[in-house]
Every structure is written in structure tokens, then in C-alpha cells.
Specification:
single chain; 39% helix; two-stranded parallel ribbon; alpha/beta; 137 residues
Length: 137
């Protein structure tokens, strides 16, 4: 599996973590998986972690992904979505961020480290961050 979902109920956020080479279909599968989880709460905040993967998306796919996310999250009450990225993925994430920001009434932001994403989401706690185990690569 190219993604993992971690629910942090006490803090009200979800982490969607990716590994490997990611194509649009992988992202679609992960979002469908997230929305079908019993633990999923539509009023959670979410961190989408692309920092340990390679996004293999063309610009048109970024727009298609933005539309897919828009339609998937329409019914949600996410207040914030944080994208965690690396230098290689930065341009694609910036395009995605902009594309989503003009389509949804949700606040999006992009980060290069987990601490900043936790802080922005509103769940900054060094002990919690230390316990978060990322996907082994």
C-alpha cells in the first residue's frame, strides 16, 4: 500500500502519509479509503504528507486531483488542510494548493516539516510529534 492513514482523535486531526512513486490513481484510492474509514470524522483537520514520495503528476492531473479533492471534501467540514512536501514535489503542491484554494472554502497551507504542519493545524505537542511514526522507507 502506498499510503497510510493515522487518526488522532484526541487532537481532531488526520495524517494521510504517502511513500514511493505516487500517481493520480494512488491519491484517488487513498482519499476513498479515508472517506470510508469508520474513524473518519468530517470535522477533522488533515495533514497530507507528500514529503517521502515522488509525485508523478502532470499539470492537467493536478487540476483533476484538485477537482477530485473538491468533490470528495465538499461534504466534509475540514477547517484546515496542511500539505507536507519536499523540494522535488514543491512546485506540484504549490499548483495544487492554489487550485484548491480557489475551489473550496477550506484553508490550505504547505509545509516542509511535520512540526510546522502540527503547529498550524493547532495540535502542536512535542511528545505527540515524537510518537508519530512515519512510514518506513
Amino acid at each position: 500500500m502506498k499510503h497510510r492513514i493515522k487518526f488522532h482523535k484526541e487532537s481532531g486531526f488526520i495524517i494521510l502519509d504517502y511513500k514511493g512513486v505516487i500517481i493520480f490513481d494512488d491519491i484517488k484510492v487513498s482519499m476513498i479509503d479515508l472517506l470510508e474509514q469508520a474513524e473518519f470524522s468530517r470535522n477533522s483537520n488533515i495533514i497530507i504528507d507528500f514529503s517521502n514520495c515522488a509525485l508523478n503528476l502532470k499539470y492537467a492531473m493536478v487540476l483533476e486531483y484538485a477537482d477530485f479533492i473538491k468533490n470528495s471534501l465538499k461534504k466534509s467540514q475540514f477547517k484546515k488542510v496542511a500539505f507536507l512536501t519536499n523540494v522535488v514535489n514543491e512546485v506540484l503542491i504549490a499548483m495544487l494548493h492554489y487550485s484548491l484554494s480557489i475551489r473550496l472554502p477550506i484553508v490550505f497551507n504547505t509545509f516542509s516539516n511535520m512540526e510546522a504542519a502540527f503547529f498550524w493545524i493547532g495540535s502542536f505537542d512535542k511528545k505527540r510529534i515524537a510518537k508519530f511514526d512515519r512510514i518506513d522507507h
